[in-house]
Sequence to fold (453 residues):
Amino acid sequence: MSATSRVPALAPFRVRSFRFQWPADLATSWAFEMETLILGWYVLVETRSVLMLTVFASLLYIGTLLSPMFGVMGDRIGHRYVLSAMRAVYAALATTLMTLAFTGALNPVQVLAIAAVMGLVRPSDTGMRIALVGETMPAPQLMGAMSIQRTTQDSARIAGALTGAGLVATLGMGPAYSVVASLYAISVLLTFKTGGSRAAPNPGADTAGVSAGLRTASGERETAEAQPQARFPQTAVAAGDASARPSPWRDLKEGLAYVRTTPHLLAVMCLAFLFNLTAFPLFHGLLPYVVKEIYRTDQTGLGYLVASTAFGALLGAIALSARGGAIRPARMMIVSCVAWYAMLLAFAYTQHLASGIAVLMLVGFTQCLCMITMAAMLLRTTDVHFRGRVMGIRMLAVYGNLPGLLIAGPLIARFGYPITATLYCVIGLAFTLLIAVRWRSHLWRLEAPANTR
Fold:
């Protein structure tokens, strides 16, 4: 009997596509963490400006507005092809940075320019990899698959952060970036091997947005039953009617309308934007500032803090992979979100590296519970024909990082990190409770589709 048969938590590895996707996502996540750490520290040291650090971090999310279109293309041509092309772009940009570093021509302006190009594509990676899992994984295994998929990001954050800091400190920028470029190249090759037959549609998926139909420009409503070829691009192509295939913009409009008319999906999108606006900037983009100005340590200390957050998240992912079948996703998402903000508030007032490491482990644990249950709920309750677009729209919420980081820079310069973090956490908690009350029948009621086990 194989290990995947003996251990239920490993059941997703019975799917061939997942066996290739897991190491591909691992290599990409490892490269992401190394790259963000290396370049963030480089910009801060070379410019000596927290404002430039926030600009660099913001540029990595500049393409968030394009995420829904990546979802449209995934629904049209396949998520595997879109994800492979995206990762080929990462490899090309990393190779360019590696070349500049080896020749001694690298400067902050070039780093910011390349970060801007990278930022056009990178925000959509998580949404596309989640959509690919949903495309190939049977519905009963989605929670376990998402938990295991999340471990690729968290374990990579631990190893990538510590390795990135160590490589730069011992070998320099050029050799460190050669590792990043190699990881991206490996991820491209493995991603091409994913895909295959689609998983069977989830009978519990919410099709209200489909059956209700969408309004056309003339104001009339049309339903999926009435015009199946116009609704779903794959149907038109399979029928050999290429002219019936709608434009990408129409696909996008239909995806937006589907989210808008499905209450629990709309609530999740609001929460996702709130998290990116008020929570993620505090322990992602601004962490180099905390290390340098509050803890008074170097990039090695930064690596320890990033790794501690990832280790806590890894523990959360392991816990969910083992017990995920007994969890009410929407309820767990709300409860863990409140705990997440509480831990961020505690982190804002830590003054020493050791205490910061301990608190960030709890931050990572609660954040992981929130994100995994959110992703699993989206995959379970979204109609299969809209899955790529919904995940693309979900990644649109990452755009909240941009104003969150840009506003935080001047606030920290004037009031300091603790007061700024307190303000962000209070706002986040208040709006989380407001969203939970506003959509309580869709997020808290046990019989709600969002709480299906």
